[in-house]
């Protein structure tokens, strides 16, 4: 059994991050008799300057990427299809917002120390993309934290203080120095990188190639 160390640089606000992760999960399930993986999540902010109240998502995409309404519809259709194929449900029916995710990264850094980082990350993706929960509202965020069995009062303490601020900033700076500027980026065994919402076949192929190179 070969062990893989997989660091996923990602933002909860990024739909391709959850699509890529679900495809990774499928690939690992296919190769479960050959590989085991230790997964950790690294912080990336798509919108570090976003104010706390967030912004309507369609308005944000039009401003940031210059997408017309038609292009926005095309984009959503593609994400919906890719999500369905990967086994994740995107909901485009209600009001959706883009927020600054720094506080989510602080909680995820803490969750790693409790052995629940992936559980929290997946719960945050579902809350944001499927349930359309506004994660910039503290009670909503604490509900998600509690739903994966983490201590609500402790999470509130972290949010109300500057805890894990430095850890997140240091990780972000280190990743920037490595030249990582887009998400998702999957760093395998500290030396190989795959970027984007890759299909599961791409992960299968990459893991087999890595195993051959390291043999």
Average pLDDT metric: 96
Query: Number of helical segments?
Result: 9
SS class: alpha+beta
Strand content: 5-15%
Calculate the terminal CA-CA distance, rounded to whole Å: 12 Å
Arrangement of strands in the largest sheet: 2-1-5-6
Poorly predicted spans: none
| Major sheet attributes | 4 strands, mixed
How would you describe the shape?
globular
Taken in chain order, the helices and strands follow as EHEEHHEHHHHHEEH
Kindly provide the radius of gyration, computed on alpha-carbon positions and rounded to a whole number of angstroms.
17 Å
Give the total of beta strands: 6
Range of helix content: 40-55%
Blueprint (SSEs and pairs):
Blueprint: E1 2-10, H1 15-30, E2 35-43, E3 55-56, H2 57-65, H3 69-86, E4 97-98, H4 102-113, H5 117-130, H6 138-147, H7 152-160, H8 165-177, E5 185-188, E6 192-195, H9 200-214
Parallel strand pairs: 1-2
Antiparallel strand pairs: 1-5, 3-4, 5-6
Characterise the protein shown here.
With 215 residues, this protein is α+β, with helices and mostly antiparallel strands. The strands form two sheets. Strands 2-1-5-6 form a four-stranded mixed β-sheet. A two-stranded antiparallel ribbon has the order 3-4. Helix 1 links the parallel strand 1 and strand 2.
